[in-house]
Every structure is written in C-alpha cells, then in structure tokens.
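Pasting two entries for a bug report.
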Amino acid sequence: MATLQREAEIRRTTKETDILVRLNLDGTGETDIDTGVGFFDHMLDAFGRHGLFDLTVHATGDLQVDAHHTVEDAGIVLGQAFAQALGDKRGIRRYGSLALPMDETLVLAAVDFSGRGALFWDVDVPAGMLGAFDTSLGKEFFIAFAANAQATLHVRELAGENSHHILEAAFKACARAVRQATEIDPRAAHDLPTTKGLL
C-alpha cells in the first residue's frame, strides 16, 4: 500500500508580503526559516522541531513599517498548508493537548482539527519588543494560523513572567499539541474521527 504523502507547498503574495511555506507533517523537524524577524524565526524553528514537521518558511514583508504583516501573513499561509496537507483528515487523532513548562512559565495548548477555526487565547504577555518582534504579535500569529488551519486552538498561560519564555512556551506547546492531533492513529487509520462523517 502506498504511503500517504501529507505535504503542502503554498505561496501567497500581496502588496505587503511574499510568503512561501513548505510543510511535511511526517517529517523529522528539519527547518529552513527566514522571515527577516529574528525572534519570529526562532519561534517557527521551535514549532517545526517540536512538532517534528519538516518546515520551510521564507517571507519578505514591509518590515520598514513593522513586523505585523509578515507575522500575520505567515500564520495565514502556515495554517493553509496544514489544511492542505491534512486533506480529508482521515485517520488523524484530531485532538492534542500539552502543558509545557519553561523555567517559571507554564503554558497549556489544546487543539481540535474540527473544521471550525478559532483561537481562544488567555496569555498575559508583557507588552514590549523582543528584537523586532512586538510581543502582541504572538496572538496575531495564532489567530491567523487557527482560522486557516480550520482548527479550534486554546492557549492558556498557567504561570509566567518573562515575555520570551511565555511566547516560546506557547509556540512549543502548540507545536506538540498539533503534532499529537495530526498524527495518524494506527487503530483508526482509515476512519474519520467524527460521528458526522465530515470534518
């Protein structure tokens, strides 16, 4: 039986950004990230490595304005890549969750690839800049990702003080929750994980 190729390549070009994403859900965590925003590169690298997704994200954007459009549009395209790579979602576990500790920080992420994209964010990140990355952009990224991946995503900060730790824990927790949810369940490899017959 042929192995299902759960991969996607999507390019999105607007007057503000040019984003290319390549994704392999069944990879080993190899990443090739270049967005022009150092902290965001660090977060996407962590997302790929902790999710064991082979992930390329190349982005050019209007960084002379700020990083908002680059970060948000990367979330859009990455979400679209997940939706495309998952296909009809047959055989996936559908749900994933993890509480991830990082020093003083503890962040919970829970995801359902339900077909109903929405973010529920209860993360108190101190306002400020991490290099060229405004800390408010973490939420903007995950709004775009969840909507376009057609996933219900909850992210909740249970403890934390340091902005870098809080956002990094959020990205890593989401990556590991998404990894769980998108893995093929060998006990139900040909079934849809729903009573509706459609996800």
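Entry 2 (this is the one that rendered wrong in the viewer):
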Amino acid sequence: MSKILPTIHLGSGIKFHRPEVPVFEPLELTDPAIKAMTDLKKIPARIIYPNETIDAANEKMIANKVRLLFVVNYSDQILGIITAQDILGEKPVKFAQENNVKRNEILVKDIMTPAEDLEVIEIKTLSQATVADVIETLRHKKRQHILVVDYQGPNNERTVRGIFSLNQIARQLGIPVRTYDIADTLAEIAKVLQQR
C-alpha cells in the first residue's frame, strides 16, 4: 500500500547542490592515460551557443575555470569547440580585420574550430596508453586539448566522453603552468621531467 511522504516548507535563502569540484590526482608519465582524462560522465561539459559573443565565451570560461567550451546547438549536438587560445590569440584580430567588424561583434561561430575539423581519440585506444603517450600526441598535433569519444546508446552512437588538457596534465604532474602557450607548457614539462 502506498503512503504519503512527509513534506516541509523550503524556506527562503536556500541554495541548491552543484557538482563537487573535481579533485585531480597527481600523475606520473607511466600512469594509464585514462587517469589524466576529464571524464564527462563525472564532470559536466561546459557549453556555449554559436551566436554568443567571444567576450561572453571568455567570461564563461573564467567563471567556470575552464579553457575550452563545447559549441552546441539547442539539441546539444556539438558544432565545434572554442578555446581560450582561440579567443585571446590572433583569430579574433584576423577575423575583425578581414570582415571589418569590431572585436565585441565577433561571435563564437566566427572563430570556433568546427566539429568536422576536430581529431579525436577513441576511448578503446587508451586501454594501453600512458600519460606520456597523451602528451606526445598533443605535442604532435600542436593542440592544447584533445577530445575522447566512445560509443553508446541503442544505436551505438559516437559520443564525446572526455577531454585531455595539456595544462591540466602539467598541473597533475606537479608542474606550475605559467603560460597557456602549447610550446611553453611542453617545454616546462620536458624541463621538469629531465630533473626526475
């Protein structure tokens, strides 16, 4: 037999739960690669829509303490990504000059990297991979981030499962990140690793 559950009044000034701030464990180069991946099953993806400004994207990155946003449509399909490097680098300057617009008029879709141009790693590839392999892949691709995909659902659809971030890996290796330039971060990692 069903019963009515007791209720109470919410009251005022009450907040709601947010996901806990992830705790990233220290890494070694020989650790399994998966240990360095930001798992989107555990940490929510940060998103933005293509018609928002790059200034709004930058503010969202700062507020969420991330350097990459997924650009999505209203069905949550990934249209591309935008990174802090995209926003703070040469792309906006070039776009503004070529299209005779002001910086504050530039939209995310104008400088994002489209989904079709993104190279990703399949999660099954990571079963035998190490953190060092991920760093080498990022170095070779000249990328700050690389996405990881798996296949799920009744139709076995390709889905983004996680993200590798060069700066996050450096922090987990105990290397202070002073810059967001890929070459500088790789140089810092190499310098510290030679000392170990």
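Dev reply: Rendering is fixed now. As a check, the viewer should reflect this: The chain is about 30% helix and 20% strand.
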